[in-house]
Amino acid sequence: MSSYKELLAEREHLEEQLQAAFKIERENVLEEIMRKMSAHRITLDEIRGRPAASPGLAAKYRDPATGNEWSGRGRPPRWITESPDRSRFLVKTSGTALSKIKV
Q1: How many CB atoms within 10 Å of residue 75?
Q2: What is the tens place of the pLDDT at every residue in 59-94?
């Protein structure tokens, strides 16, 4: 039967081995995750759960001084809230689909 001091020394040695094995295993898992993310074109934003930008949402307002745009959804930016008349920020459209049809 082993003495108490021998068992403590053995436990300490085993804990060191566990830490080393865990570090190696962790590195292997990270490499595998990065390889799979790259192969499947997965981004960190997708993993974090951030929604992708909506490509179909066009700007409704534009700041003429900076060129910053706002779709009209969500919290309005400071440059438009400071103005009493939002119509001066409206993005000018080239016309409707009907006006482009030649008769």
Answers
A1: 7
A2: 899 988 888 888 888 899 998 888 888 888 898 876
pTM of the predicted model as reported, rounded to 2 decimal places: 0.43
> How much is the pLDDT for 26?
97
Return d(Cα 84, Cα 80) in angstroms, integer: 8
Single-letter code of the amino acid located at 29? V
Which residue is it, tokens 């929604």? 51
Q: Is the dihedral of CA 10, 15, 21, 23 positive or negative?
A: negative
**For residue 67, which amino acid is it?**
G
Q: What is the pLDDT of residue 28?
A: 98
Angle, vertex CA 14, rays to CA 12 and CA 18, nearest 5 = 115
**At a CB cut-off of 8 Å and minimum separation 6, what does 58 contact?**
71, 91
- Alpha-helical (H) ranges within the chain are 4-39, 44-48, 78-81
